[in-house]
């Protein structure tokens, strides 16, 4: 939403806790012409995975968020895989009197 894009969502048929976000346009790619020589394993847009994982943790959901496809590496779309691991406990701290 903050990047001005709307991803397509694809669910995995084999598991109920996994889905994929496909980005036809990734605004972070606009700032990179090509990956540096010798750094082809660099995942420049991994920032998006961290943002998604952090947002899910804020609502008490642990998830593994990884890149499946990346436009910077020659793929047609940017695809992010999200696997829910568990619901985190809400640890509210009681005030000591």
TrEMBL record:
Listed GO biological process terms: Golgi vesicle transport
Q: State the Pfam families in the record.
A: TRAPP
- The main location class comes to endoplasmic reticulum
The answer to whether the entry has keyword Manganese is no
Enumerate the UniProt keywords alphabetically: Endoplasmic reticulum, ER-Golgi transport, Golgi apparatus, Transport
Q: Which SUPFAM superfamilies match?
A: Ligand-binding domain in the NO signalling and Golgi transport
- Give the GO cellular component terms, alphabetically: endoplasmic reticulum; Golgi apparatus; TRAPP complex
User: According to its UniProt record, where is this protein located?
Assistant: Endoplasmic reticulum; Golgi apparatus, cis-Golgi network
Cross-referenced Gene3D superfamilies, in alphabetical order? Trafficking protein particle complex subunit 3
| Function, in words | May play a role in vesicular transport from endoplasmic reticulum to Golgi.
The UniProt similarity line reads: Belongs to the TRAPP small subunits family. BET3 subfamily.
Protein name (Swiss-Prot/TrEMBL): Trafficking protein particle complex subunit 3L
User: What is the native source organism of this protein?
Assistant: Chelydra serpentina
Give the taxonomic lineage as stored in the record.
Answer: Eukaryota, Metazoa, Chordata, Craniata, Vertebrata
């Amino acid at each position: 939403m903050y990047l001005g894009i709307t991803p397509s969502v694809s669910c995995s048929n084999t598991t109920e806790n996994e889905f994929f976000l496909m980005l036809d346009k990734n605004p972070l790619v606009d700032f990179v012409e090509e990956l540096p020589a010798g750094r082809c394993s660099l995942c420049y847009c991994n920032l998006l995975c961290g943002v998604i994982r952090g947002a899910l943790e804020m609502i008490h959901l642990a998830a593994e968020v990884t890149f499946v496809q990346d436009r910077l590496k020659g793929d047609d779309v940017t695809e992010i895989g999200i696997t829910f691991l568990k619901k985190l406990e809400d640890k509210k701290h009681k005030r000591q009197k």
